[in-house]
Known about the structure:
Four copies of one chain form a homotetramer.
Chain A: H1 7-11, H2 20-38, H3 43-47, H4 57-76, H5 87-91, H6 115-133, H7 139-169, E1 193-196, E2 199-203, E3 219-223, E4 226-229, H8 235-243, H9 255-263, E5 272-275, E6 278-283, E7 286-289, H10 301-311, H11 318-325, E8 359-365, E9 391-394, E10 411-413, E11 422-423, E12 427-429
Amino acid sequence: MMSPSNATLAKHKPKTESDTPSLRDRLIETRALSAELARPLGDEDQVVQANDDASPTKWHLAHTTWFFEAFLLKRFLPGYQVFDERFEYCFNSYYESVGARQPRGKRGLLTRPSADEVRAYRAFVDEALDRLLDKPLSPEAAELIELGINHEQQHQELLLTDILSLFAAEPLKPAYRAARPGVGVSEAEPLSFVSFDGGVFEVGHDGSGFAYDNEGPRHEELIRPFRLATRCVTNGEFIEFIEDGGYATPTLWLADGWNTVKGQDWTAPLYFEKAEGGYMQMSLLGFRPVDLAAPVTHVSYYEADAFARWAGYRLPTEFEWEVAAGSVPLQGRTLGQNHLCAMPAKGGAKLKQMFGDVWEWMGSAYLPYPGFKAAPGAVGEYNGKFMCNQFVLRGGSCVTPEGHLRRTYRNFFYPHQRWQFMGLRLASEV
Amino acid sequence: MMSPSNATLAKHKPKTESDTPSLRDRLIETRALSAELARPLGDEDQVVQANDDASPTKWHLAHTTWFFEAFLLKRFLPGYQVFDERFEYCFNSYYESVGARQPRGKRGLLTRPSADEVRAYRAFVDEALDRLLDKPLSPEAAELIELGINHEQQHQELLLTDILSLFAAEPLKPAYRAARPGVGVSEAEPLSFVSFDGGVFEVGHDGSGFAYDNEGPRHEELIRPFRLATRCVTNGEFIEFIEDGGYATPTLWLADGWNTVKGQDWTAPLYFEKAEGGYMQMSLLGFRPVDLAAPVTHVSYYEADAFARWAGYRLPTEFEWEVAAGSVPLQGRTLGQNHLCAMPAKGGAKLKQMFGDVWEWMGSAYLPYPGFKAAPGAVGEYNGKFMCNQFVLRGGSCVTPEGHLRRTYRNFFYPHQRWQFMGLRLASEV
Amino acid sequence: MMSPSNATLAKHKPKTESDTPSLRDRLIETRALSAELARPLGDEDQVVQANDDASPTKWHLAHTTWFFEAFLLKRFLPGYQVFDERFEYCFNSYYESVGARQPRGKRGLLTRPSADEVRAYRAFVDEALDRLLDKPLSPEAAELIELGINHEQQHQELLLTDILSLFAAEPLKPAYRAARPGVGVSEAEPLSFVSFDGGVFEVGHDGSGFAYDNEGPRHEELIRPFRLATRCVTNGEFIEFIEDGGYATPTLWLADGWNTVKGQDWTAPLYFEKAEGGYMQMSLLGFRPVDLAAPVTHVSYYEADAFARWAGYRLPTEFEWEVAAGSVPLQGRTLGQNHLCAMPAKGGAKLKQMFGDVWEWMGSAYLPYPGFKAAPGAVGEYNGKFMCNQFVLRGGSCVTPEGHLRRTYRNFFYPHQRWQFMGLRLASEV
Amino acid sequence: MMSPSNATLAKHKPKTESDTPSLRDRLIETRALSAELARPLGDEDQVVQANDDASPTKWHLAHTTWFFEAFLLKRFLPGYQVFDERFEYCFNSYYESVGARQPRGKRGLLTRPSADEVRAYRAFVDEALDRLLDKPLSPEAAELIELGINHEQQHQELLLTDILSLFAAEPLKPAYRAARPGVGVSEAEPLSFVSFDGGVFEVGHDGSGFAYDNEGPRHEELIRPFRLATRCVTNGEFIEFIEDGGYATPTLWLADGWNTVKGQDWTAPLYFEKAEGGYMQMSLLGFRPVDLAAPVTHVSYYEADAFARWAGYRLPTEFEWEVAAGSVPLQGRTLGQNHLCAMPAKGGAKLKQMFGDVWEWMGSAYLPYPGFKAAPGAVGEYNGKFMCNQFVLRGGSCVTPEGHLRRTYRNFFYPHQRWQFMGLRLASEV
């Protein structure tokens, strides 16, 4: 399904330079994948915004395109004329340095430009990117293309989580894609733990290859001996928490978590619904029985933290996780495997499921690393200005695009948010 | 533009009975007009809801269809199977007797059923209506068809006011239709008044032909001598009020009005924008300079009342208006003339513009007439349950469908609402 | 209890002029009664505001005093120096013409001036009023004193309803005064109706003696024959409505009423609480079992209207009520009788309880009478600017001060409000 | 001013045991200080709640008393009967394990129990504490007394910050106490920095003497070399930031901070008002000109962070601060010095003002230390459940009671809060 399909970009694959080819290929693939992900959706599906956290598909498609136009083409492609000057207002996300923009909560009002016009906009910008890539690139431009690819990959994941939030809000509960036979019938492996030694470890990105600014500077952290669960917490385990009165026991919760539980009438993870004979959950594969062996998905930090307290454990810190992740290959069930839902862990009592399936909530606030400085200009707004009130998630999910992850990757969300593919893994002192 | 185009309904025009033919013809025309009104819009335009007051075009198209299915076909067409059982939840508007429904503020989440499916739903119901009309109708069924026609006509007006509210909220400010040349260049006729004698008058609908339940019972009202302006208040006059500090003078306003002005930062009618050299206003014809000679449009009751106080007049009561309306022909610039905006009054110092152009705010609360009883069952929820907190408007607008109005017609909205084509006419004691 | 106790004012009762003496006496009595009503309260009770509708006792005491200072003393007492210039900001209620003021919802923040200072303010102004009254008064000044007396009487009623709203919000549920023995044990008289002929009747105040501007102009109204219940609806009857599912049956309610019921979780009148063996209600006499024979109190217009619909009746119009009230003496159980709660009707199948006990919701929107014009200046803001979105209540309550009522008196509140002593009486067509 | 004045407690000072005496003395002093702090206030001042963050004085006085009753007397004083069973509902703050309670935002509704009753409640509990202390205490009871003392000290600081928030909201802007002559006329010392070496340091409380649970476990932290300003940022420096457009420059702010600035219309620290010739600020000493040499007070984390970014520095981490604090004596201008406002730093280019004057915002999220476990039972709710969404502040303020601080002391507030005596100190990498 995920093969490139964007004709304009695909036709001249560059052959000359040793470095840019792969950049161009990856750009082509990334741009094609966005279009591919929108394909199962009607134009109507693409325009509506289900809530303030989520953006419409069409907006994602246009915003990622505008990103290349605003930060790359206008600066580096001589004579480039923007497709439509008014699109900057429509499709700037949050770059204060760039200027005024459609308010975030009103992205769903943009019936115009139409989906057709947005597709034309994508083609226009792809064609211009193609021209840009025909000539040798300055390092700065190459870096911005790399950033643009990674940026678009993030929006690919958001596109899927956001369309799920829309479909879950619709009375007809449509599926993004039909489920494959056999999904959801396996049994969970028993919970076990792996121990890690303490010490001073280097963490953070070392500067080789692309990384977001928030992954550095690489620095030393003092880590105490710890134990980490070999797999994520499953739906079955989380249902035990529910049925033990987890959502009705204030002493298990952080104060802000408990206020949220009461204020929002939370009684289960997002998209869960109690039905006769068990729990159902809305997913990209439709409204389906919960797979007890699969990782619990769509839980907030508050729920993850309360579950861990109930179970007698805690969440890992992001540095514990990063040290542990150094011991396993950088692979997992991400978007390329096309499950579109988190799958049960397999493989016995070793550390697994560190990448893919669900993002794992860390017990670490999202803060700058020592010595962090945001880049100057609009691109510097990418990560730094969000370093407050959020928690770190690590490891990627079943809808994270291939090649997007790193061991040092730091995702971050507010502790009440749960519409992403979020779960947890238990940890403890040794 | 407004010719019937719905093939299914159009093909067998009944010829036999003396009474139903015209009902059938009017049904066919009405159903066709709805489709016609949606034609300039893309499917994306039809799905989005700009605010809680407005509904998406697609919802209007489906809801009016559901109305015939729920209240007519299920009862009167033997063997009728509903198109899709889930549509009742999706497209019931406010009928508590019928059951649960999509919350009003979330009608814009319904990307499914798609616009195509809604069109198929319309064709399916039209075909069933056609079959129903092939046989002699019971009086009750005929009455419900009549109600369904009038109901759909109301939604046609709403469809246009609601799409305007969406387009006005979009940064690209699209026009529903291009303006004709020459619109907006005339000069207003001077304001003059017509006097009416007092006395006891019969008002309300006399029961011949269709009327909504809220127009009756016909009864006597004691009316004092009064004067009524020959035409509506113009944009030019309203701009004088603005420039005289009308929106900054609390003593001109009702207390609730002043709170609204302050709370909502109102400084002009809805869709107005101050520009160099004058005012612009968003309209179905796009974002255009205000026509100073045309009736001011999109003002709330609060603004109408404050303007009247500033001008030294008052709003007429609905019974004064009805008595005055008895002296002029039931005709005006409504949807059939296809202006899609209010036009300047023409014709000298006689009473004019009583029908069409803009709904006129009355100084009358929307309350039941003496002896009013709502009909039993769901249809009884049509009007009666809204008889609180709203004010009456009379006379119809430039987007009221042909044949929909009566001299006794009572429209009603909350005093803060202004997204309809609402204006005012001055009155005073003699 | 209600004897004058304000020494400053009481000591020189004027003896010379034929007209002002009674005005002075009434002023003295009124001023004294306010102090008397505050006496059972601690200073702490007097400063807190339980909700945005209610004002603190201290604020009432100061605002009524400011009213005399601002509208009377500053204009008519030569050389008068205000007690404290800053009090105008603190104690102006809603007079936009006068200037900025403490926001209504923040009256409860005024711990300063202290209750002692407010008492000193009252004494200071009383003494100045005394001096003013020593000399012949201009008609305009006399009229403003009359207005000030009536204004203060209104605030006396509010003081009691507002302190009840505070005490009801407190966990310790204090009583304003202990109940007398024997309250609440009688049985209700059966419901019966009196018929009235139709015709054209004069209504509104005829200009002799004091009345608020909203009671005029006197004018003719056409009234149809009607029937009016001989007494108010009782708690017992209202509990039948509750137990018949009244609060769970949407078709009994106005749409706005139903939204309020759902949005506010209403299941009974305000201050009701279901207990073992029946209903309790918080009152000025404390938290006590509901007296089944007494008029239901603290119901909104929505509840009154829904009850009437459930019972097969309707609410009377304010003109029907006024015509009927012309047939009975202007007397009832008001504040002077010192019950502090509505009492059961007594006296058989004749019209009774028209004055006192509970204000009765009318099925009439609060609108200006034909030819109404607000007075110029700040005093003109008294009534006119509220003529929108409210409903009329007639007849006074158990906490309306003696001598305050008239047959033409129009009270008004929003249809959702119920913290006043509000009930209803049924009516119907003949 | 701060001498003990509570007769009941003061009269039998224990003389026998070597350990409890000082505990008893400190208990007596602490209880007496609370009463002393309330003395300048009228009972009305003590009952009102200015906003949801602040509690009324009376509530603080009663809650701290209830704390001893609920956690100490009921368990350890045989035969103890509570003063009034209903007070638990009224004066429990947030202990879910204890039960239901008056909602936080409605503490200001409690006009009952009256201030007199609360004073009697204090005397009653003090007397019981006295009896308890007459006998040898179990270690657990002694620990709870220690906790109760520290708890009450925290509320003493809150009492002052909360009464300031009330007085600042009042139009008459009363002073809690008159200012001493000469306050506010000095000049700020120049800004300079002290350097610290990096390394692995032990931080957190070592268990000797009392500390809150959140200060431990003591553990090692890896710290990089850093520089710390010798004094806090002054009002004069902060005004430079304001006048350089700090509040209008989005790129200086965290995203959540910028949303707060826009949403709340912030243009200066809390209680600041721009006046002719400079800035005024409401304080416990009344509404006074800002002292340019004194530490800026009443800034949020967002403002502290934005200022630091503008100045080219950053906030210190809590561990950097704690290491630096190890180098200076544990003394500063706290409540005992009775300034009631932050004072200019004095003493040249060495580290100063580390304790007292203003709490300093740290760039550290408030999270559990490694191995932290909340105590079992209600007391375990003291700190742990707030470890989310807040930031750490260090060092105490001008209104922190004597003897309350430690170098390991961790205060915490939400980043938008600023009604405490909060300021900042700059830091940087070396």
